Every structure is written in C-alpha cells, then in structure tokens.
C-alpha cells in the first residue's frame, strides 16, 4: 500500500541520485584536461519494486515502482583500444628514438661538409697528385703530410665520437630503468588497491585511470603488454618475461657489460637472476638497437677502411725512394690499424716521403722521379679486395649512404607510426574523453530532474500538512 | 565520433607544429642554398653528389699537374729558342771566320772570344731553372745539368730519363727534353769552333760549321717535339675544363636550392600558417554550451 512516507522516500532518492549525477558531471568538467582521465557517468536505474502486500488485500495494484538509484559509476573505456594503442606506441617510440640518435650521429659525422670523411680522402689523394707533378717541391711535400694527418685525425675523431655515443646512452638507460622500476612498483600497489575496491563491489575508476597511464608509459618505454584478471589486477610482461603479477613487481638494474667489445657500455639485467633484459619495443629498444647494432656496424666499416688504407698506402710507400735516395719507410704507423689508432708513422718528414720510383742505376738519386707518387695516385681508383672490391671513396660513400638510409628509414617509420598512433589515440579519446557540451546538457538534465524531485517533495509536504494539521478537525 | 575538447586542442597544436616544421625546412633550404642538409634528407642524391665532388677533385689534380707541366714546357720552349738564336749567330761567326780577308789575330781576338762568350751563355741557358728545378737535367733536377770541367771539357751531370706525368686517368705525357741529347752537341760544337778559331785552324772550320748546323737541327727538332706535347696538354686542359663545367652543372641541379621555387613555396606556406593560426584561434576560443545556459 502506498504510504506518504514511502513517497517522500522516492523523492529523496531522486534528489540524492540527481545530485550525485551532478557531482559526477562536475568531476568530468574538472578533469577535462587531465591526462589519462576517462569520463564517468552515473548509471541510474529504477529501484527494485516493492511487492505490495496491499494487492492481496485488494487495496491497490502490486509491484509498484520504488524510485531511482545510482546503480554504479560507469567509466568509459575500451580495453581493445588500449592494447592496440600501446603496441603501436611502443613501435612509434622505438623508431623515434632510433631516428633521433642516428640523426645526432649523422650531424656529428658531417659527411656533407668539407669536414666529412670523403672530402678529406679526396684532399689526401689530391695532394699526392700534386706531389706527382712536382716531386721536389717542399711545400707540396709538407701539404701531403698535413692532409694525411688531417685524414687520420678525421678517422680518429669519427671513431671516438661513435664510441662516446655508445657510452653516452648509459645515463639515458639508467634513467629509463629507474622509471620502469617505479612504474612497475606503482602498478603493483594500484593492483592491490583496485582488487580491494572491486572486492567490496565498488568502482575504482580513478585508480584505473592511474594504472592505465602507468601501463601506457611502460609500453612506450619497453613495449610491455598487460592482461586483466577477474579480480581487476593486471599481469604485466615484457617480451614474455613477467614484470608485475598481482601485488608483486620485479626490478631491473644496469651493470657494466662484461663483453670486451662493449667496454664502458652498460647492459640491463633482471635484478633477481641477472639474466639479460630484452625489450619488446619502445624507447629502450630504440636506444639498444642503435647502440648495439648500427653504431658497431659503422665503427667496423671505419676500421676496415682505416686498416686497408694503412696497408695499401704503406705497401706502395715502402717500394719508393725518398728525396735523399733512401728507400721509403712506412707512411702510416703500421701498428695503427683501427680508425681510432690510425696515425702517420713516427719520424715521417716531408723529405722522407717516397715519391720516386727505383733509379735506373742503383745508388743514383733521382729527385725528379715521381713514379711512386703516380702509383699512389692510381691507388685512388683501384678496387680494394679488403673493402668488398670497392675503391676507398666508393666504400666511404657507401658507409655514408647506409647510415643516411637507416636514418631516413627510421624517421619515415617514426612518422608513419605516429599517424597510426594519432588515429588510435583519437578513437580512444573519442570513447573516454570529456566533451564539455555534453556535460552541460547532462548538467541541465540532472538539474531539471532535481528540481522536479524537489517539487514532488513539496507536494508530499503539503499532503502531510493536510493530514497532520487539518484532518480530523470536524466540529472544532 | 565524439569530438572531445582535448582532441580539438591537440589537433590545433599539431597542425601549427607541422606547418612550422615545413616553413623551417624551406627557410633552411633558402639560407643554406642547399636542397638537403644531411645525407638522410635524400640519401641517393647525397651519395651522387659526393661522387661528383670526388670526380671534380680528381680532375682538379690532373689540371694542377697539366698547368704545372705546361709552364715547365713553356720555359723549355723559350730556352730552346734562345739556344737556336745562339746557334744561328755562332754559325754566322764561323762563316765569317772562313772568310780569307780576316787574319789569324782577328780570328783569335775577336771571333774566338765572341764564340767563347756564346759558349758560356749556352751553358747558362742549359742550366736554366723552372721553380728551383733544372729543366734539362733529366730526373736529377736539383743539380745544374752542365758543368765546364776545364776549358775544353763539358760534363753533363744530369740523369737522362723521361719524366712521365699523368694528365688524365690513362694519359701520360713526358714533360722534359733531354739536355744531353739536345744541348751537348751545340756546346761541344761551340768549344770546337772557339778552339779552331783561336788556333787559326781554318781547314777544320767547315766541319765545325756542319756540326753547329746539325746541333741547330737537333734543337729545332726538340722544340717541335716540345710544342707538340704542349698542344696535347692544352687540349686536355680545355677538355677537362669543359667536363668540369658539365659536372658543376649537374652537381648544382642536384644539391642547390632553386630559389624561385623555394620562395614561392615559402610564400604559400606562410599563407597556410596564417590560415592555420586563424582557424586554430577560433577553435580554441569557440563557445560551448555552458556559455549559453543560465
């Protein structure tokens, strides 16, 4: 049987529900610019109807509605979008980092300026060519030495810079590792909190927002993937290795790489069992790929070139004769066979440059003879077996092209992935983002409902007034 | 699709960013006058440009060589000419020595002295230098080619050898004229002429005259040979210059910014930028429903 008090209760419930709706709208509006925020909505449902006893007694119809209630606070998100978004963002970051570091290397090597390796090489050959035309000219002899020294210095500098570039990544990796560790830890503690809240049948919406943000960042860093359990906890793994399960997280650390090829370079290992960490994408993967693959390739190519230039030039130089008629010695130091160590032979002086070929009569000094210098000039256009049968200049050019196309590929891939990422981000944002117009409309709607409920309350008030103050006053 | 406020703001920022990047790239192309700044901007063209620069450098080397030798040869030519003039004068003097109207004293005092003077001139010319190198001393360019050991003996102390120089990948040229073959006969003929005139040995004078004439022919032949080589070098210099111009043109078309194109591109990008800013400011300041509710 309908009672006055139950009517007041329905009005009260309506007022409370609508004001909660308004508060949630406020929450949305307040977080319109908050990163990672998913919009929320009060999901209103009709309360469970009272099976009316009065029906049996014949006073009224049964199953009368009992008003409205906020069933749950809904959070707009789609797990499918999150997974796709994170996997693409891992790839994007990996390419972006590769492109960024490689571009830095490219601009330090400055191949297109006069300071590039190829122009230095040209200059070296040119001064030999000048010497061949005028072998007694001491200015040209000094120039040959200077240009050779400057070529050596360019080799040294390039190799040095590449080595330093590898070592410079240590600090970045260390920062990344500590960020990964703290993210893993916060995901583990969020897991605990979320499963507790879900356990008491509430919605941990804002905690979920925080955890999603952490998972987004973790994917950007390492390509980590996550799967959600029935209790609301997520399991996070990187390349098949578990990082977070439930309330526990593993930690990573950096340590000096024991490999002799990687002196001064750190590697990332799992703290628990010291096994090597391999990222599945993301910034860390980008850094490691450049550091452990592209840069060593460039260094190896530089070394090959330095080694061949030392042996080929020395082979010719030692066959020649100096200005004083003595046999030529080494031109480059024979123990400097890497790009880092290449240098002129000790004691090489302008007059010790062996420009002359063998004299017709042994012992004669043929100062105007430049046969050996001509051989050196011819070396410029010779195919060198140790350099894939390319000339020095072609090989050098090939090194530059390889780096250039790697950079341009990384940049192009970065841009393409960014476009996909943006589209996915927009899909995600479209589901979970806050639209102010919508909130304004919802606010108006709730406000009107609230006002109406208040009016209903008023009506009951008047009814009660009637019952209490004016009924049964007959004859008073 | 729901369009959220954040989406609109992000897009505005992104569009502004994109157009600014494009303007920056165009400005860089104009300021540096180069189409690309790093090899990765255009790997294939960058590599081609390096190759072209290398071939320019090779050609520069050959041209340096050719110019040096060409100067050397011009000096050689000038000196051979001087020697020819000397030889002609000497043959005239010997001819006048054969004249019966001149007596022994005059032959000795005036004619022999004059020839002796010429002998020393010839030796000086034989020892002439180009940039510190004795041009007739063969490959021993650091020592004078001829020394007069005593009044009657001339010694050639150079090393007769051809000095080959490359003026192209497969083209070599001999730069020197051998002093011993070319100049020694003249010097010896002059010594003989001076001695015969001094000793009034008129019977041997016709033989000496023939020797001087032969020496003159040798000189002329050497000059002709030298001239031929000079022409060869001139042709190859002018060929190299022509091909350099062609290479420079290709290089420029590959790496240089076309200013007209770049400026018009910049102008259109600036217009786009203005439009993006205009639209962006409207998007950002757009009213929403809250502004209309009361």
What would you say about this model in short?
By secondary structure, chain A is of the alpha+beta class.
Structure description:
By secondary structure, chain A is of the alpha+beta class. Chain A is built from ten helices and eight strands. The longest helix of chain A has 62 residues, at 138-199. The radius of gyration of chain A is 39 Å and the shape is rod-shaped. The relative contact order of chain A is 0.14. Chain B has 294 residues and is mostly helical. Chain B has helices at residues 5-32, 43-98, 104-126, 179-182, 184-198, 205-255, 259-284, and strands at 129-130, 133-134, 146-150, 153-156, 164-168, 171-174. In chain B, strands 1-2 form a two-stranded antiparallel ribbon. Chain B has a two-stranded antiparallel sheet with strand order 3-4. The longest helix of chain B has 56 residues, at 43-98. Chain B starts with a helix and ends in a 10-residue tail after the last helix. Classes of the chains: A alpha+beta (476), B mainly alpha (294). At the A-B interface, helix 3, helix 4, helix 8, helix 9 and helix 10 of A face helix 1, helix 2 and strand 5 of B.
How would you summarize the topology of this molecule?
The complex is a heterodimer of chains A (476) and B (294).
Chain A: H1 4-30, E1 40-46, H2 53-57, E2 68-75, H3 79-109, H4 117-133, H5 138-199, H6 205-222, E3 225-228, E4 234-238, E5 241-245, E6 248-249, E7 252-256, E8 266-270, H7 282-317, H8 371-379, H9 392-432, H10 436-470
Helix pairs in contact in A: 1-10, 3-6, 3-7, 3-9, 4-5, 4-8, 4-9, 5-6, 5-7, 6-7, 7-8, 7-9
Chain B: H1 5-32, H2 43-98, H3 104-126, E1 129-130, E2 133-134, E3 146-150, E4 153-156, E5 164-168, E6 171-174, H4 179-182, H5 184-198, H6 205-255, H7 259-284
Helix pairs in contact in B: 1-7, 2-3, 2-5, 2-6, 3-5, 5-6
